[in-house]
Amino acid sequence: MTIATVAHAAHQDSAEAGAALGAQINEAFAGERPDALVLFASPRHDFSALLRALDAACHPAALLGCSSAGEFTSQTNGVGLACAVALRSSQMRFHATVGRNLSKDRQAAAKDLTAGFKGISNPSFAHRAALVLADALAGHCDVLVEHLSTLTGGSYKLFGGGAGGDDQFQHRYVFYGTEVIADGVVALEMLSNKPIGVGVEHGWQPCSQPLRVTEAEGTRVGGLNAMSAIEVFEEHAERTGQKLDRSDALPFFLHNVLGLDTGSGHKLRVVLGANEDGSIACASEVPEGGTVRIMNVTTEQASEAAAQSARDAIQQLEGHKPAVALFFDCVATRFRMGKDFGFELSAVQKAIGASKFAGCNTIGQIASAEGQFSGFHNCTAVICVIPE
């Protein structure tokens, strides 16, 4: 059986926050050490002090996590918090792994990450999944996910997201044990003979005609339909009665994202701003020659999408009861929804019933599973449900 607990701390002192998280976990597990512990922590914290105190308090066998851009559990949500999910299991196995220098060599980082996966060569467990947390702004996270899928033979459900930072998207770190790592990626391998559920939904709908990406390099998009990218968005703003100020464009772009046409749906890309040359800067890579649409969403649609991702994940459990859920959504979603983000969390809680969940707002989301909308996403709800 697998048991889980969720903890959170609002202490400003990082050592006190770590000790408080550890005390909550000790109480829930009657002093038994966790087999795995996942931490999400605001960049307001001294991560080293937080991790050392948490490790000393409850001695997890595997400890990992990331900095976050908004933290939440079944009981609370906000910024400036630290929250954790702890697991003990007689049926599952957990292994933490790390890859470094992600921006220089994504393939090498992926190889280092998967080298510690026990399930690749051990067929004893029927179901395999991995929580993946990365510095997404190191670039090419789609490529990282592709490498991970290839190295694992497509036999793992991958889920997670990009480490968050402050409002300027700085101070992004992943945690491996008590180590704080920049430009890295960590994973928690999960091996189980019960199915593990992963759901992926975003709820955004096309609100423009198809647009050809006529000029792009990495995260910079220069042209759409042979026009400067910002001019296309300005025409859209005028047509839909919205205001777009080039000097302060993020409020507009939070409600108008790009959707990459995958043939079976749209993979979202948040636009962060306009450049002086008329190009736009996106949070993730956009391929030249691809087809995109401008997308929008309502609070109700986003909340329903998050709930649907939870329902999809629970359905994959094949009747087993959920022990806990890990939930990720974009920092842009929190910025866009403001206080209404609580409606989305409530929708997730309703979908998973009495089970608890925890997670954070990330810079991009990771999801790769058979039959799912796979890859690296923006503004997308990704949830993993772990069975008892």
Question: Kindly, what is the distance between the CA atoms of the first and last residues, rounded to a whole number of angstroms?
Answer: 5 Å
Stretches where pLDDT is under 50 for at least 5 consecutive residues are none
Strand content: 35-45%
Average pLDDT: 93
The main β sheet shows up as: 9 strands, antiparallel
Describe the oligomeric state of these chains in a short phrase. Answer: single chain
Q: Give the overall shape.
A: globular
**Alpha carbon gyration radius:** 20 Å
- Summed up, the domain count is 2
Strand runs, count: 27
Percentage of residues in helical conformation: 25-40%
Question: What is the count of helical runs?
Answer: 9
The assigned structural class equals: alpha+beta
